[in-house]
Write a structure and sequence with these properties.
Helices cover about 30% and strands about 30% of the residues. It is an alpha+beta fold. Strands 2, 17, 18, 19, 22 and 24 form a six-stranded antiparallel beta sheet that branches. The chain has a six-stranded antiparallel beta barrel with strand order 3-12-15-14-13-16. It has a four-stranded antiparallel beta sheet with strand order 4-11-9-6, with no helix packed on it. Residues about 1-5, about 60-70 and about 405-435 have low confidence and may be disordered.
């Protein structure tokens, strides 16, 4: 057979099916490529959106949109740097303590017949409170009065005998010993009479003890014993408790390091002012002064206790009440003051936004001293008369244009604030936190 016409056998013939690409494999490879391209595009879109979001959030702080900030001035509240006094204050947690707390107790055993007070009322010293049955003491008093009358008669008789014996002794009509014995008999009878009189006075005192009166002026508490009960002097609970309300005191601890400023002023007779605020440290309850300093330092806490006295005319302070005490240890006079609302803290440190003459703001670093409620003293960075932003700082950036609604006026220790959310801070009740030493 001719070789040109002979068919190739299966072993030597090329496999054209293996050389041709598989359509299924080709489609799978194309799908993977499209998925990869889609993921890359999605990641690029997400990154672009994230960068746009970040730029929009940082735009009010000066990163972008400077043209929009200049085109739309931001309304802010402003205050003028003033000059005034700054108080250096020590804050402490105090307890209201009455000058006198008295438990009304009976001084004689007996049945409680009457309770004459109303629970919680204000009583004055000497007011009638309760009555104990006085009849046993009155009967003993009558018995001792009868004994006194008997012994007084014996004394009178002995004195007459002494007068007779004296004359007879002068005439040597009786023995000298009889006269001297009569002298001692008279002295014995005089002693008996004095004893009887003392017993009578004791029963009179017991009768007076049956009529119980208020020992001090103050507020009387709840009734502890009901009428009809037999009360005794050994009863520790008593009938009621009276707490003196006016004046009243607050005891509070201060760090021992503050003694070097407190002690010399107290020794010189200076009255250190103390403000008592409620538990939230917002409402001013009373104003008083330091009246006493403890004799020793508590070694466990490193503090020393002070007692401040308050008139408490409106009874705003209540016994055992917890209050926030603010002790004014010193006052700085004629210093530059800035509202604490204007002070910002961040990467530049402590800074404020200063309003320039062209109604733009500038970031300026400042150094502050003591803080007194809503204001703080300025050590450096600001001058009296400059204006600072106190409200709306979250929308500002360096160089932003602002507008101040309303009018502002120069201030001293408590700068006046104009603009949104303005609030008066000149009254002591609005001074929440004082400067710490």
């Amino acid at each position: 057979m001719d070789e040109r016409t002979r068919k190739p056998d299966a072993e030597t013939a090329p496999d054209f099916r293996r050389m041709a690409p598989d359509p299924i494999v080709k489609r799978a490879r194309g799908g993977r490529i499209r998925v990869a391209v889609g993921l890359v595009v999605l990641i690029a879109v997400l990154l672009a959106g994230y960068r746009f979001f970040r730029s929009e959030r940082s735009a009010p702080h000066g990163a972008t949109r400077a043209g929009n900030a200049q085109a739309a001035p931001q309304p802010v509240g402003a205050a003028t740097i003033g000059q005034g006094d700054i108080r250096i204050i020590v804050n402490a947690l105090g307890t209201v303590t009455p000058i006198a707390t008295v438990t009304v107790q009976t001084q004689i055993n007996g049945q409680l017949q009457e309770v004459a007070f109303t629970e919680g009322q204000m009583v004055k010293k000497g007011d009638f409170l309760a009555q104990i049955d006085p009849r046993p003491s009155q009967l003993l008093q009558a018995q001792f009065e009868g004994q006194l009358a008997h012994d007084q008669g014996l004394l009178d008789q002995a004195r007459l005998d002494l007068a007779r014996f004296k004359k007879l002794a002068e005439q040597n009509a009786i023995a000298r010993q009889q006269y001297e014995d009569q002298i001692y008999i008279v002295q014995q009878d005089e002693g008996t009479v004095k004893l009887d009189q003392a017993l009578i006075n004791q029963q009179k005192l017991n009768v007076a003890y049956c009529h119980i009166v208020a020992p001090v002026t103050g507020r009387i508490g709840l009734r502890l014993v009901d009428p009809g009960n037999y009360v005794q002097t050994t009863n520790s609970t008593g009938l009621a408790v009276i707490a003196q309300m006016q004046p009243i005191t607050v005891i509070f601890p201060v760090p021992e390091d503050n003694l070097r400023q407190i002690t010399p002023q107290l020794n010189a007779g200076t009255q250190l002012e103390v403000f008592a605020y409620d538990r939230s440290n917002v409402d001013l309850l009373a104003t008083g002064h330091v009246s006493a300093l403890d004799s020793q330092i508590d070694t466990t806490t490193g503090t020393v206790r002070l007692r401040a006295q308050f008139d408490n005319a409106d009874n705003a302070l209540f016994p055992n009440q917890f209050v926030n005490a603010q002790l004014v240890v010193k006052t700085l006079h004629n210093v530059a003051t800035v509202p604490t609302a204007a002070v910002q803290r961040g990467a530049p440190g402590t800074y404020v936004y200063v309003i320039n003459a062209d109604d733009t703001v500038s970031v300026r670093s400042v150094s502050l001293g003591q803080t007194d409620g809503p204001v703080a003293s300025v050590d450096s960075g600001l001058s009296v008369g400059e204006r600072v932003v106190v409200d709306g700082t979250d929308r500002l950036r360096d160089g932003a244009r602002v507008t101040v609604p309303g009018a502002q006026s120069p201030t001293s220790a408590a700068p006046a604030i104009s603009g949104p959310n303005a609030q008066s801070t000149s009254h002591p009740k609005n001074r929440k936190n004082g400067g710490q030493l």
